[in-house]
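Reproducibility note. Readers wishing to regenerate the assembly model reported in the main text can use the exact inputs given here. Chain order matters: entities are listed in the order in which they were concatenated for prediction.
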Amino acid sequence: MGGLEKKKYERGSATNYITRNKARKKLQLSLADFRRLCILKGIYPHEPKHKKKVNKGSTAARTFYLLKDIKFLLHEPIVNKFREYKVFVRKLRKAYGKSEWNTVERLKDNKPSYKLDHIIKERYPTFIDALRDLDDALSMCFLFATFPRTGKCHVQTIQLCRRLTMEFLNYVIASRSLRKVFLSIKGIYYQAEVLGQPITWIAPYAFAHDHPTDVDYRVMATFTEFYTTLLGFVNFRLYQSLNLHYPPKIEGQAEAEQKPEEGQAYAMDSESYMEKLSALSASLARVVAPNPEDEVQVDEFPVDGESVEQEEARKKEQEAVEKQKKLFEGLRFFLNREVPREPIAFIIRFHCKRCFGGRVSWDKSVCIGATYDVRDPTITHQIVDRPSLEKQVIGRYYLQPQWVFDSVNAKMCLPVADYFPGVLLPPHLSPFVSEKDGDYIPPEKLKLLALQRGENPAEESGEEEEDDSDEDDDDDEGSEGEEHSEKEDEGKLKKLEEQRSQGKKLPVKVSVGTVRLEDKQRSAQEEQSEEKRLAIMMMKKREKYLYQKIMFGKKRKVREATRLAEKRKAHDAATKSEKKTKKVRRE
Amino acid sequence: MAAAILGRLTVTAKPPSEPAGRMRGPPHCLHPVPGRPRALRLRYLPRARFPLPKRRLEVNPGGLRLSMKERFECCKQVTFLQQGKRALAAYGVVMGPLSIPSTQVLEEQAQESDDLTDSEESVYSGLEDSGSDSSTEEEAEDQDSGDEGTLKGSLLSKKAQARMASQKKEQVQCRSLETESMPSAQQGLPLRGEYEDDSSDEEDVRNTVGNIPMEWYQDYPHVGYDLDGKRIYKPIRTKDELDKFLDKMENPDYWRTVQDKQTGVDVRLTDEQVELVQRLQKGQFGDVHLNPYEPAVDFFSSQVMIHPVTNRPADKRSFIPSLLEKEKVSKLVHAIKMGWIKPRKPKEDTPTYYDLWAQEDPNSILGRHKMHVPAPKLRLPGHEESYNPPPEYLLSEEEKLAWEQQEAAERKLNFLPQQYRCLRAVPAYARFIHERFERCLDLYLCPRQRKMRVNVDPEDLIPKLPKPRDLQPFPTTQALVYRGHTGLVRCLSISPSGQWLVSGSDDGTVRFWEVSSARCMKTLPVEGVVKSVAWNPNPAVCLVAVAVEQSVLLVNPCLGDKLLYGATDQVIEAYEPPEEERLQPVTWAVAASAEHTRGVRLIIRHGKPVKQVTWHPRGDYLASVLADDGHTQVLIHQASKRWSQSPFRRSKGQVQCVLFHPLRPFFFVATQRYVRLYNLLKQELAKKLLTNCKWVSSMAVHPAGDNLICGSYDTKLAWFDLDLSTKPYRVLRHHKKALRSVAFHKHYPLFASGSDDGSVIVCHGMVYNDLLQNPLIVPVKVLKGHAPARDLGVLDVLFHPTQPWLFSSGADATIRLFA
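Running the prediction on these inputs yields the following structure tokens for the assembly.
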């Protein structure tokens, strides 16, 4: 036979992939530099379809990169910057060793630095792409912003993160795009909808971090480097889209009103502003404070420069979330000192309309920007997180902070009775769960849904509970019915047969038969299920496997739902019995 | 005068730059004395403190070279002069025999200089020191000595002063010589003073040993040598303690008396000396009048003066470019040329953030982005992550334990749900940084793969088959149960008319049943297990073949039409043995009379146990399968001629079952894994079907003869379309356990399979006459009725020849009819 000899692994998928070590050698980078490069450029390993083929027959565990990705890295200007930096460090060390301070100075002046702009443009060719990938960036920046200013990472990075996150929050407030908030045990989840993209991030609770030792902070720092750049550009673009200044400019007048001695209109570049930035949400809150002149100035960004389409879209959106936006309209809040100020102030401010909306204030000693005192008689709601209060002012509600979050998620002001201080709070539900039919829905959620529909649960609460339990029962039956049907069938057949065989034992005797009423529905159902079973028998092997897998998953879901329902039932029963015993004791 | 001149000449013979006093002075003066460092310190006070005359050097003779230091000393001394005599006298004591000019001389000079107009402040200008000077000096000295001559201590200092004065004078004189500007009137005078000073030499008891530890002379009577080289003896110290005490008591100056270690004499310190010591102890300047904070004078100021500060001609090196600098510069130039040194980059003023997406170019979406697998977003939190979840989401104790025992990667939740009563009780989440870090690792380290998520409705996966209702008739319910056997019923067969059923069982009986009434019409006991029964398919013959042990019995059941079974008997009896005996693998025997009455007509004795027996559709030939390994596993018998033959010359494996083709002269032989189709006429292998099964248990052929089904012990049923392929057209895995038997219906498009799981599955198997259309196979009914016993369920299935009825025999010793 003619033709060239075909060698193995010289074509096909084996040539499309490259192992990490080979890639590293090709790029002539150390592992650390390679890692940095991969993080910045967003290169990640791929799992080949046929690992053995790609691995040239070996089954050793290796990570593979796409060869194209690595070739693409070869032309990256940042690689050279890495090398330059290495040389710079070497020179600097040498100069230090020789105590040549002039050289040190000169070298430091010429310290090589790189920019990530082109990488961001390359990774996210359109703005929407960048928005889609913003979740991790925000979470990371929010984490870094809470780091202590010493150790672990550069202070500049921390400050930058803090600034960028605050700017983003500022934008969220300005664009009124916050949708959901959730207090979890890990932190506070927020979800905003920016240009139609849901962006979810988590901010940790404001506590000192117990820095773990098994975490490589260099990796995180590299990611943060990229994320801060990304977030900066995104912020810029977002601010621009609202015709806002970037970096954010605090309204001069509002500023002057609050603190006349500070006449800084554009203070971002000054040191004092950075300090104020740490209380950004607070000071911004004041910017938005009800002020007729303020409105005009504010109007400049949301209304004037927008095109018709944007306006229309905005209108639609506004209609959709109008309720949510006007949630705290006309209310005046006061935050007690023990309440986490920043998130709650953020949320309340978000849900207040700029001109007439509710306002929020706090104790002067907590943070700057307190607008009114505790004794202000116009306060309608005071957020309190302590078991009891010694003296309460008549004319305002004392509520636990969960009320704010639950109200936001419910898109309506919830009845306040459940949230008084010292009261056992109702469960805080995740707004991110959307139950499909068949899933378990906690009764609290059902109640909430009823509330949203406009029913009054206070009167029907008892009934509803019963209903709930009934519904649960129904669900249970429905789910278990199918499982049991076969067994039942078998049992019935057996019984029938036994009867018949017993009948056969006395062949001579003919007993009078009873008329058996045929349940037509039942029989039809049985027939159908039989049909289905037979059809399943005829499935191809692969499809059958898939089908069984799907069905297994479904069954597991049902099982879990029933488990939760049972747990709830047991819990309710236990609490009821406890109540009863208490009552009995009282009597 | 001449002597004086001579003396002068001798002096001037010395190089002018060298201080004459040093040469003249005694050798010991080169030794440092304790007082000297202090003197030095004083000398090196900051220059600026001493106001210096600006013009003093203008009269300096050109030839005279003085180092800056010397000059400086001089100026300082001048200033000292003005600060008063006493302090300077004290200096003289401290300094001892120093080679610096005596203060007294300087004092004189100063006095002189007051008169002089052109050199009022300069030391060196006072070269006109004349005899009058020296005379006054002498006088002063005399006075001094007169004053202080009584004191021992002052003596020494006197001497030193004198010496210094003389030295100074020498210097001055020689300089005056050089300058040649001396007035003639003053010339002769200084000569006298020079030797006057020397006249006091005998009194000078200075030690010449130098600055050595005086302990070295401890054991000697002397303490050193004087200028003449004579021993200086220690004073006779006869002072004992008492003397000392008396001295202490009586001498009021005892406290200020110190012993000069060099000479061993006691010295009483003068008031000035005491004062000086006290001042020094306090850390003040030795000089009372010295003001350390004099206003500074900037000599080398930026103001250009008409006269130079120094009169020193510029060095040669100041006219020649520096080689060292040149080298340095050239190095820098080279480094710049080579690009080693780069100019400072101008700070970039471009803003850090700008509108990056100002021009969104759709073409900038690279091919890479198409290969891009975006990282999946993190799962959104559910109710269980809430700080105050509904109670059902909290884990119970067992669940918690199970959670803790699970591997971290296997856990469904990566946290333990917790409930806190209020928001203030919520602590920081300990693993927050961990989780972010893990996310980072996932993002850059985790291999990504596009996985097609199957988003199908499971109902869509179910094939659309015709409804069983439309495929009726088929057996649906159990109609009759035939009881009577005591052992498991292995085999069934039915008469061509469909009226009678025969069954063979492990209890050693063959039973004949009436189908419609389930009555056992006849029981034929045989010796041993009945492996197989087969009713002759020829409706004109009433004959049943029964395989028992090593023989096949041909039984006439004597059921039904008497004419019919009578005719069969007649046919059997009419047999005439051929003339010549042929060699046969089996022996044909006619049943004995006892057996004959029971119905057995003929017995075919094989040498081996018989597994199966089956009739040719015509009813004349029958085939039997032996449990053997050789080539004689299959035998074909001709009942009418009582003749047997072994069709195969070679064994192809263990034969499981055999079957005659219903229409054509073909013969199916199933071994463990293959089914071979032999053409009996041509005596050749026509086809070899690959069953894809591990172990074939049974087979059945479609009445049209083009399709074959094959049951196997590994739960499969393979449908072969003989025209299509040698591989199965369809493999059905309906049963959960091994298939024991399969059967086709003669008229209806039905087939059935019986399995060890106790079920019989009836399928609709439609074979179309159109060769292009593949057979349609639809399972229509699962029939259950047989109770599994000893891991065996249904052992044989059989269709009624005319009705859509199904018989099944099972391990529970029953036969069931499904209709």
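We highlight two features of this model. Confidence is low (pLDDT under 50) at residues 1-160, 168-202 of chain B. The first strand of chain B starts at residue 222 and ends at 225.
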